[in-house]
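TA notes. Do not distribute before section.
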Amino acid sequence: MKQIKSASERLARIEKDFFKGVDLAKASGLEGEERRAFRLAQVERLLTENDGASPLAMWLSDQFWTADEGRTPMPGGLTLQEQQSLTDAEMQRLRLIVEVAGLCHDLSLHFTFDLKEAFGVKNDFWVTNKQLVEWLSSTPYERIAMHTAYTMRKRAICVYEYGHYMPAQDALAELFSMEYSELVRTPDSTDIPPRAYVKIIVDALLSIERHWQRGRRLKLRPDLVKLHDEIYGLVPRQFDRGVLAAAQALYDYMDKELCGRLVLEGYNYDASSWSEQPESVRRTTAEVLGRFAEKIREVRSKYLAKGWVTDDSLAFSYLMAHGQRCGYGYWREEDDGL
């Protein structure tokens, strides 16, 4: 096989492999909305067409960047020195290809990107961005919409994980479509139609966001909302008075009796396993968490119906993890909410 040496030859190979039949010379002179429309049309095509097991979008991305967030240059890619050897017309085509490849990179790997530049909408990947939601719901670029919705879901999972909001984190991570009887997987691994796929994710994100908005209207502290939902074991559509009373009882106990109790003298921060902690640390931790478990059972008996928050339930695990974080001093650090 002939080795490709010059920048012009490498550019020609990329054009042949990824833009066959596309008039890049004419398109490279486009500006504004016309240029954006061309980029989106090409990205949509590349996300749809496959070369073997992967869409062409991923292969084009690999010509320029590694799979890292932030577009780290691919070793062996077109260097600045090589680009300087291209003609003006070749550079114009290359700039356009790089723009297309950049969006292919971020969409294929589900990294956030500049929505204003890409779609012409407000640059905010949260579901409260009405411009973005409307664009996703109506755009003819359905594969792009699917990948963008998946990126929104992925980002929300990270936010909820960081905020220790486990019911929401798990709900999104294990999102299931009853209509299509399947987990909502990546856009390239699902048979759910694009419009339905986007709607499933947007509806799930909106449901969680609206729940928090109700909590704010009721002036509930974030940790109280989390305790309420942990007792449910999921993110409910409403706040239940009895469950709120149980959550408040646990909140008060954690605030007065648990916060910081696991910040212990003698704790070995270099230990590689729990068994390497001093016996005094392990004993005190077991006693503190044991008392919290008894408090959960007491609250369960007083406020909740039979069968709720059993010791082997996910809800009980959520509450114990919340209590442990409180014991280590991570308590009410997010009073401003998620």
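Switch to the second chain here.
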Amino acid sequence: MKKIFSILLLSFLFFSCNNHQDKIEIYLLKNRIRTTEGIPVLEYVKLKNIKYDENLENLKDCNFDSVSKKFIFGGKFNIEKESLEKEPFITNEDILKLNLKKSEIILSEIGRQKIAQLKPNMKYGIQFAICVNKKPLLTGYFRSIYSSYIYNWNYINYDHYNKEKRIDKDTNFVVRQNQDYENWKPILTDLNKYPELINTFKKSKRLEN
């Protein structure tokens, strides 16, 4: 009897392991995380003994590149698991595929509508993290297509008015970067730099090359 029970237990564990699927989810953050690029604007002002202007308060969440002398509104940032909201914004079930060549995330209609309904932050965007089993692997910003601010880190454009047939609206959600802080030179993010994320899409048969 014990032998039969052991065989059944091993069979159950083997079956469970083989049917386990890593979860790919998109999380929003509890609080905004400052970029690792440049230094906070107000710190730079103090450092250089620049005369304080009340208008600088509008840039208190912004960093400044002291070399290029440019403001950074959407720069690179790193997070830990503790920075994530408790529940995923986009669930594993709503992430259908990833087209690697186009850097394009294909979502269900439910997932698409969740992003379209985000209240935009025109200046700083909305930070997110793409996670595997709640481990942050790729960070970025949801950026309104109506924003005039440029992000040099990963961003996904979205239309919060959800209008149809716009020529500048992505069919799905493309991950891009801009090559500069101020000049508009967008390129596709090289997602091959995130092998753990790519491998998870591949294992779950959701990767398109």
